[in-house]
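Trying the structure run again after the queue cleared.
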Amino acid sequence: MAVLVIAEHDNASLNDATHKVVTAAAKFGGDVDILVAGEGAGDVAAAAAKVSGVRKVVHVDGASVAKQLAEAMEALVVPMMSGYDAVFIPATTTGKNMAPRIAAKLDVMQLSDITDVIDTDTFERPIYAGNAILTVKSSDAKKVITVRGTAFEAAGEDGSASVEAADAPAGPFKSEFVSEQMVKSDRPELAGAKRVVS
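Done. C-alpha coordinates:
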Protein backbone atom coordinates (compact mmCIF):
# COMPACT_ATOMS: atom_id res chain seq x y z
CA MET A 1 0.00 0.00 0.00
CA ALA A 2 1.28 3.46 -0.88
CA VAL A 3 0.04 7.06 -0.64
CA LEU A 4 0.97 10.02 -2.83
CA VAL A 5 0.98 13.45 -1.15
CA ILE A 6 0.89 16.47 -3.44
CA ALA A 7 3.13 19.17 -1.98
CA GLU A 8 1.80 22.68 -1.44
CA HIS A 9 4.51 25.23 -2.32
CA ASP A 10 5.32 28.47 -4.13
CA ASN A 11 8.30 27.08 -6.11
CA ALA A 12 10.61 28.53 -3.44
CA SER A 13 9.53 27.02 -0.11
CA LEU A 14 7.44 24.12 1.15
CA ASN A 15 4.16 25.12 2.79
CA ASP A 16 3.51 23.79 6.32
CA ALA A 17 0.24 22.29 5.02
CA THR A 18 2.32 19.57 3.34
CA HIS A 19 3.75 18.45 6.69
CA LYS A 20 0.24 18.09 8.09
CA VAL A 21 -0.98 16.14 5.08
CA VAL A 22 1.97 13.75 5.49
CA THR A 23 0.76 13.09 9.07
CA ALA A 24 -2.72 12.24 7.72
CA ALA A 25 -1.23 10.03 5.00
CA ALA A 26 0.89 8.18 7.57
CA LYS A 27 -2.28 7.50 9.57
CA PHE A 28 -3.82 6.01 6.40
CA GLY A 29 -0.90 3.57 6.32
CA GLY A 30 1.67 2.31 3.85
CA ASP A 31 4.56 4.10 2.18
CA VAL A 32 4.24 7.87 1.79
CA ASP A 33 5.69 9.63 -1.25
CA ILE A 34 5.57 13.38 -1.94
CA LEU A 35 5.04 14.85 -5.40
CA VAL A 36 6.74 18.23 -5.85
CA ALA A 37 5.52 19.64 -9.16
CA GLY A 38 6.68 23.12 -10.11
CA GLU A 39 9.21 25.18 -12.00
CA GLY A 40 12.63 25.74 -10.46
CA ALA A 41 11.44 24.03 -7.27
CA GLY A 42 14.63 22.11 -6.46
CA ASP A 43 14.83 23.64 -2.98
CA VAL A 44 11.24 22.56 -2.32
CA ALA A 45 12.07 18.96 -3.31
CA ALA A 46 15.08 19.01 -0.97
CA ALA A 47 12.90 20.33 1.88
CA ALA A 48 10.25 17.67 1.16
CA ALA A 49 12.92 14.95 1.40
CA LYS A 50 13.53 16.00 5.01
CA VAL A 51 9.90 15.49 6.09
CA SER A 52 9.64 12.60 8.56
CA GLY A 53 8.06 9.36 7.36
CA VAL A 54 8.50 9.99 3.64
CA ARG A 55 9.86 7.17 1.48
CA LYS A 56 10.69 9.24 -1.62
CA VAL A 57 10.08 12.56 -3.31
CA VAL A 58 9.06 12.69 -6.96
CA HIS A 59 10.30 16.00 -8.39
CA VAL A 60 8.64 17.20 -11.59
CA ASP A 61 10.09 20.38 -13.05
CA GLY A 62 8.51 22.19 -15.96
CA ALA A 63 6.60 25.27 -17.09
CA SER A 64 3.36 23.27 -17.46
CA VAL A 65 3.19 22.62 -13.69
CA ALA A 66 4.66 25.93 -12.50
CA LYS A 67 1.33 27.05 -10.99
CA GLN A 68 -0.14 23.56 -10.42
CA LEU A 69 -3.23 24.20 -12.55
CA ALA A 70 -5.83 21.43 -12.44
CA GLU A 71 -5.51 20.30 -16.05
CA ALA A 72 -1.74 19.84 -15.96
CA MET A 73 -1.78 18.24 -12.51
CA GLU A 74 -4.45 15.76 -13.59
CA ALA A 75 -2.33 14.79 -16.61
CA LEU A 76 0.60 14.22 -14.25
CA VAL A 77 -1.11 12.52 -11.29
CA VAL A 78 -3.65 10.18 -12.93
CA PRO A 79 -1.01 7.97 -14.68
CA MET A 80 1.00 7.86 -11.43
CA MET A 81 -2.00 6.46 -9.51
CA SER A 82 -1.40 2.97 -10.90
CA GLY A 83 1.25 2.69 -8.17
CA TYR A 84 -0.74 4.29 -5.34
CA ASP A 85 -3.84 3.47 -3.32
CA ALA A 86 -4.60 7.10 -2.42
CA VAL A 87 -3.62 10.66 -3.17
CA PHE A 88 -3.71 13.14 -0.27
CA ILE A 89 -3.93 16.83 -1.16
CA PRO A 90 -3.97 19.88 1.17
CA ALA A 91 -7.45 21.47 1.34
CA THR A 92 -6.10 24.79 0.07
CA THR A 93 -7.12 26.84 -2.95
CA THR A 94 -4.68 24.93 -5.15
CA GLY A 95 -5.68 21.54 -3.74
CA LYS A 96 -9.40 22.19 -4.03
CA ASN A 97 -8.86 23.19 -7.65
CA MET A 98 -7.06 20.01 -8.74
CA ALA A 99 -8.67 17.30 -6.57
CA PRO A 100 -12.11 17.19 -8.30
CA ARG A 101 -10.52 16.82 -11.73
CA ILE A 102 -8.20 14.02 -10.55
CA ALA A 103 -11.15 12.21 -8.90
CA ALA A 104 -13.29 12.57 -12.02
CA LYS A 105 -10.56 11.17 -14.29
CA LEU A 106 -10.08 8.23 -11.90
CA ASP A 107 -13.90 7.80 -11.76
CA VAL A 108 -13.97 7.84 -7.95
CA MET A 109 -15.67 9.87 -5.24
CA GLN A 110 -13.62 12.71 -3.77
CA LEU A 111 -13.34 12.79 0.02
CA SER A 112 -13.18 16.46 1.00
CA ASP A 113 -11.73 18.23 4.03
CA ILE A 114 -11.10 15.18 6.18
CA THR A 115 -10.21 15.76 9.82
CA ASP A 116 -9.40 12.19 10.84
CA VAL A 117 -8.46 8.83 9.31
CA ILE A 118 -10.24 5.92 11.01
CA ASP A 119 -8.95 3.24 8.63
CA THR A 120 -8.14 2.90 4.93
CA ASP A 121 -11.82 3.20 3.98
CA THR A 122 -13.28 5.37 6.77
CA PHE A 123 -12.73 9.07 7.40
CA GLU A 124 -14.23 11.92 9.40
CA ARG A 125 -15.11 15.34 7.98
CA PRO A 126 -17.03 18.35 9.32
CA ILE A 127 -20.48 19.30 8.00
CA TYR A 128 -22.98 22.06 8.84
CA ALA A 129 -20.27 24.73 9.13
CA GLY A 130 -18.28 22.48 11.46
CA ASN A 131 -21.15 21.91 13.91
CA ALA A 132 -21.31 18.17 13.20
CA ILE A 133 -18.79 15.51 12.26
CA LEU A 134 -19.70 13.04 9.53
CA THR A 135 -18.10 9.60 9.24
CA VAL A 136 -17.63 8.65 5.58
CA LYS A 137 -16.83 5.19 4.26
CA SER A 138 -15.55 4.76 0.71
CA SER A 139 -15.30 1.50 -1.18
CA ASP A 140 -13.40 3.07 -4.11
CA ALA A 141 -10.20 1.27 -5.07
CA LYS A 142 -8.35 4.59 -5.34
CA LYS A 143 -8.93 7.42 -2.86
CA VAL A 144 -8.69 11.13 -3.71
CA ILE A 145 -8.63 13.02 -0.41
CA THR A 146 -8.28 16.66 0.58
CA VAL A 147 -7.01 17.18 4.11
CA ARG A 148 -7.93 19.98 6.51
CA GLY A 149 -4.48 20.86 7.84
CA THR A 150 -5.66 22.32 11.14
CA ALA A 151 -6.83 18.86 12.24
CA PHE A 152 -3.38 17.25 12.10
CA GLU A 153 0.00 17.89 13.71
CA ALA A 154 2.84 18.78 11.36
CA ALA A 155 5.29 15.98 10.59
CA GLY A 156 8.86 16.51 11.74
CA GLU A 157 11.89 17.22 9.59
CA ASP A 158 14.29 14.42 10.40
CA GLY A 159 13.68 12.36 7.27
CA SER A 160 16.14 11.45 4.52
CA ALA A 161 14.01 10.44 1.55
CA SER A 162 15.42 9.96 -1.91
CA VAL A 163 14.55 12.45 -4.66
CA GLU A 164 13.61 11.11 -8.09
CA ALA A 165 13.06 13.25 -11.17
CA ALA A 166 10.08 12.74 -13.47
CA ASP A 167 8.91 14.43 -16.66
CA ALA A 168 6.32 17.19 -16.65
CA PRO A 169 3.22 16.72 -18.82
CA ALA A 170 3.75 18.29 -22.23
CA GLY A 171 0.32 19.75 -22.98
CA PRO A 172 -0.84 21.91 -24.64
CA PHE A 173 -3.59 22.53 -22.09
CA LYS A 174 -6.73 24.59 -22.55
CA SER A 175 -6.31 26.40 -19.23
CA GLU A 176 -3.42 28.77 -18.63
CA PHE A 177 -2.20 30.97 -15.82
CA VAL A 178 -2.99 34.66 -16.42
CA SER A 179 -1.84 36.64 -13.38
CA GLU A 180 -1.54 36.72 -9.63
CA GLN A 181 -1.77 39.63 -7.20
CA MET A 182 -0.66 39.56 -3.59
CA VAL A 183 -2.31 42.05 -1.28
CA LYS A 184 -0.26 43.20 1.70
CA SER A 185 -2.15 44.08 4.87
CA ASP A 186 -1.22 45.46 8.27
CA ARG A 187 -3.48 42.86 9.84
CA PRO A 188 -2.08 39.45 10.77
CA GLU A 189 -2.66 36.62 8.30
CA LEU A 190 -5.07 34.24 10.01
CA ALA A 191 -4.55 31.37 7.57
CA GLY A 192 -0.91 30.99 8.58
CA ALA A 193 -1.19 31.92 12.26
CA LYS A 194 -0.06 29.41 14.89
CA ARG A 195 -2.90 30.45 17.24
CA VAL A 196 -6.06 32.46 16.66
CA VAL A 197 -7.91 33.89 19.65
CA SER A 198 -11.35 35.36 19.07
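The chain has one domain: 2-192. Worth checking whether this holds up in the mutant runs.
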